[in-house]
């Protein structure tokens, strides 16, 4: 197999109401990635544009964005797997480069969620479920994850305080991430006394919508050398899985089966085990999602997640640092851009360029990106 690496990464600031267009939003991440890689548009063989189209007013946004960024006449593709769209884009880019179809591929994820109202956004999120058999009953994302939270807490005897500790950690690092929406610390008592959203989840247990873009540039080893890239971050393993859309078709509610299956596949491809991961980005759309990820990825035994966060083992100085950029809970969650943002964080960590968020000497990093309520799952393992 040809070696495939990431040669450039970029991200816009994640904000609550971006004033420009989607093409201008994408440009912010694109320009940072191009400067990072120190290449020109002629060096990009193809692009994969990623978003959740139900939030986009522009039909076929891939063509509009590629034109604006000067990435024509190279081919451009569009990828969508809900919240995991841009990590799906990474897998597609890897496949095109590894197969020899292209020497380099750019993955751009974006979402301008402020183009529609909060009520419209919630309605579209509900349509992520089966519109014939499930979403007509009014289920929304917080309610779905609240079901998992209730099942998890009841099964393992964990406490709501354990979920709140995850939010406190997110806020700790969100304060030092200049790209994050929320840059204020929160105390455990604040989280516990916050208004309920969907029992047992409260306001601070939930991430917020945001506008943002991310960009990842992938190339084979030969192309990277030709371009003078002296520190590519290699893609070591990729795993993906899907689950029944309807929750009635599932038999696991203490974790996400897609994460378990995808991580097993990614570990096997990379030839490593969970205890060899030095730093991780997990999909913490809700605090319970991060808690389940600890166990789904093998960082803790089933039911052992609460002890990890109680002992601060997922803090920067801990055994397995997780979401030391603040995660979705602090950064915000612009759906199509989220996976690329997670990938960017791990790339910077492995290069030793993460600033105040830097973990000590990481060699292997992991990205866990979930689409919908465990409908899609991608796990990407990167190494320096």
TrEMBL record:
Keywords carried by this UniProt record: Lipid transport, Lipid-binding, Transferase, Transport
Coiled coil feature spans: none
One annotated GO biological process: lipid transport
Keyword Hydrolase: no
GO MF annotation list: acetyl-CoA C-acyltransferase activity; lipid binding
Pfam families per UniProt: Thiolase_C_1, Thiolase_N
InterPro entries: Thiolase (IPR002155), Thiolase-like (IPR016039), Thiolase_C_2 (IPR055140), Thiolase_CS (IPR020613), Thiolase_N (IPR020616)
Domain Thiolase N-terminal intervals: 21-181
EC number: 2.3.1.176
Domain Thiolase C-terminal: 254-384
Name of the protein: propanoyl-CoA C-acyltransferase
Protein's organism: Dethiosulfatarculus sandiegensis
């Amino acid at each position: 197999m040809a070696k495939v690496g990431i040669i450039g990464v970029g991200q816009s600031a994640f904000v609550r109401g971006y004033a420009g267009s989607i093409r201008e939003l994408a440009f912010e991440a694109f320009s940072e990635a191009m400067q990072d890689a120190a290449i020109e548009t002629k060096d990009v063989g193809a692009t994969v544009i990623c978003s959740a189209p139900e939030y986009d007013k522009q039909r076929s946004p891939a063509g509009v964005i590629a034109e604006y960024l000067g990435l024509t006449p190279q081919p451009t593709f569009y990828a969508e797997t809900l919240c995991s769209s841009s990590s799906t884009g990474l897998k597609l880019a890897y496949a095109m480069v590894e197969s020899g179809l292209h020497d380099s591929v750019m993955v751009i994820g974006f979402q301008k969620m402020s183009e529609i109202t909060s009520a419209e956004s919630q309605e579209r999120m509900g349509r992520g479920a089966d519109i014939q058999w499930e979403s007509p009953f009014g289920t929304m994302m917080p309610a779905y994850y609240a079901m998992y939270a209730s099942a998890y807490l009841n099964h393992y005897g964990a406490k709501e305080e354990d979920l709140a500790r995850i939010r406190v950690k997110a806020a700790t690092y969100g304060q030092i991430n200049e790209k994050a929406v929320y840059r204020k610390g929160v105390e455990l008592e604040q989280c516990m006394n916050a208004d309920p959203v969907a029992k047992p989840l409260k306001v601070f247990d939930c991430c917020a919508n945001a506008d943002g873009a991310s960009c990842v540039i992938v190339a084979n080893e030969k192309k990277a050398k030709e371009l003078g890239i002296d520190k590519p971050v290699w893609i070591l393993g990729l795993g993906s899985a899907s689950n029944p859309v309807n929750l009635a078709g599932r038999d696991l509610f203490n974790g996400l089966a897609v994460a378990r299956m995808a991580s097993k596949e990614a570990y096997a491809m990379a030839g490593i085990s969970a205890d060899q991961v030095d730093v991780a980005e997990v999909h913490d759309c809700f605090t319970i999602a991060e808690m389940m990820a600890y166990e789904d990825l093998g960082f803790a035994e089933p039911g052992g997640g609460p002890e990890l966060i109680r002992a601060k083992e997922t803090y920067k100085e801990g055994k397995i640092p997780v979401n030391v950029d603040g995660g979705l809970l602090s950064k915000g969650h612009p759906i199509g851009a989220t996976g690329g943002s997670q990938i960017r964080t791990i790339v910077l960590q492995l290069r030793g360029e993460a600033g105040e968020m830097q973990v000590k000497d990481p060699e292997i990093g992991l990205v866990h990106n979930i689409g919908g309520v465990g409908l899609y799952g991608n796990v990407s393992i990167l190494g320096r």
